[in-house]
Amino acid sequence: MAGIQWYKILYTQTEVKDLEDKANYISFQLHDPALAQRWYLRLRELIQDGLTTFLLKYPLYDVEPWKEKGIRLFFTRGDVVLYSVDLEKQDVYIRGVCTKGRDLSAHLEETE
Fold this sequence. Notes:
By secondary structure, the protein is of the alpha+beta class. About 40% of the residues lie in helices and about 20% in strands. The protein has a four-stranded mixed β-sheet. The radius of gyration is 14 Å and the shape is globular. The protein starts with 7 loop residues before the first strand and ends with a helix.
């Protein structure tokens, strides 16, 4: 489509670790590897579908210093995807994934 800008999704090491940690929790603590796989695949699909176009529609994380750094929040059913955008390069950096209700600032501080 003409006029729509497409962005490339780039996963940081922190985000990859977040996904692995949650998938391992579901697999080993909840004893449901099939659910872990479904969760992982669904989340990756949601990220691809939701953050390749019109990604500025999602809110900035309204807490400093994260707001100044351009961290945005993409909410899914049970998770929050923390991401930032480089408009010039047309890249989206997935910074982390947290379960809803978790202290997002504390999670971001862990990743700095």
